[in-house]
Amino acid sequence: MKNVLIIGSTGQIGSELTMKLRGIYGNANVVAGYIPGAEPKGELAESGPKEIVDITNAQQIADVVKKYDIDTIYNLAALLSAVAENKPQLAWKIGIGGLMNTLEVAREHHCAVFTPSSIGSFGPNAPKDGTPQDTIQQPRTMYGVTKVSGELLSNYYALKFGVDTRSVRFPGLISYVAPPGGGTTDYAVDIYYSAVRGEKFICPIKAGTFMDMMYMPDALRAAIEIMEADPSRLQHRNSFNIASMSFDPDIIYRKIKEYVPSFEMEYQVDPLRQAIADSWPNRLDDTCARIEWDWKPEYDLDGMTRDMLEKLRVKLGK
Ligand code: AKB
Questions:
Q1: pLDDT tens, residue by residue, 150-197
Q2: Up-side HSE of residue 147: CA atoms within 13 Å toward CB?
Q3: Residue 240 pairs with which residues in a beta bridge?
Q4: Best residue for ligand 1 mutational test, from 80, 205, 211 (most atoms within 8 Å of Cβ)
Q5: What is the SS3 string spanning 191-212?
Q6: C-alpha span between 214 and 172 (Å, rounded)
Q7: How is the chain split into domains, by residue range?
Q8: Which pick of 50, 117, 135, 154 has the fewest CB atoms within 10 Å?
Q9: For atom 5 of ligand 1, which residue has the closest CA?
């Protein structure tokens, strides 16, 4: 039986992952950790236990781990890439200070730990197309620096102390449930809201800028499957490339227009986000994840677009 703590349960990934894990392991066995000001609401608050867990406070993590006899921690606390560029100290404090706190508690209490990495862990020196699992990682963003450092620190705790750390490098995640907030790939979520609201979309990323993207149901499955994977098959731990689709703003715009013919888009490039996107890969090679734990995405751009438009029309009453 798994007893799970989600740190950052009210964020873009956490709010959906918590509910999915409750469906698998039982409501009472999945604790939603949150910080004051970002309290769980609705079903997330009512369906299971919730506790204040500030990742920068090691004692708080340890207290909740002991209270609920936690054996698996999903560490989802992070500042996304564009925000991290404006708050580098805070990004480090949460991304690395917080991870160190989590790993220490995990070492002492024998917990497995999932900490997502990102396509942002690669920089401009990595091969852009078919970026390999093991290649040069020299990011030029604070977000990327925390992600590479987090991968190394997590591997260190696995090798040195036997902590069962595992991770995937998430692409831009697209979902109709909770907004991302502060990422470089957020445009690929915002574009669907504009289409459904009947508004022209102002795109902050240039045409021709390709990035890996993924629909949230695939991302949630990846986070669960990697933690359930047979450890004897894993040659890697932190962190696995995963991929499902890669597109530029023009491709996603034309795909949405197939279903919303009146939809319009105009470019007004945000220099910060564009510089970050230019430093990231176009498309990752996820062969190792496919071989080592049978990773396989279910959604392509067309399947995701049909589902996003349908779900957002219901959500926004359009
Ligand atoms: C971001 O854009 O910062 C994130 C990511 C790709 O890690 N969505």
A1: 999 999 999 999 999 999 999 999 999 988 789 999 999 999 999 999
A2: 30
A3: 168
A4: 80
A5: HHHHHHHCCCEEECCCCCCCEE
A6: 6
A7: 4-171+215-241, 172-213+246-284+298-316
A8: 135
A9: 172
Task: State how far the Cα of 153 lies from the Cα of 99, in Å rounded to an integer.
Answer: 8
Number of C-beta neighbours around residue 61 at 10 A: 28
Write the DSSP string, 116-146. -EEGGG--TTS-SEEE-SSS-----SHHHHH
- Please report, to the nearest 10 degrees, the dihedral formed by the alpha carbons of residues 40, 44, 49, 54 taken in order: -30
* Residue-level pLDDT at 194: 97
Predicted confidence (pLDDT) per residue in 71-110, tens digit: 999 999 999 999 999 999 999 999 999 999 999 999 999 9
Residue tagged active-site, from 25, 68, 74, 143: 143
Report CA(119)–ligand 1 centroid distance (Å).
7
Structure-block tokens of residue 86: 């404006």
Give me the CATH topology for the region 172-213+246-284+298-316.
UDP-galactose 4-epimerase; domain 1 (3.90.25)
CA 291 from centre of chain: 22
Query: What does the block give as tokens for 80?
Result: 């996304």
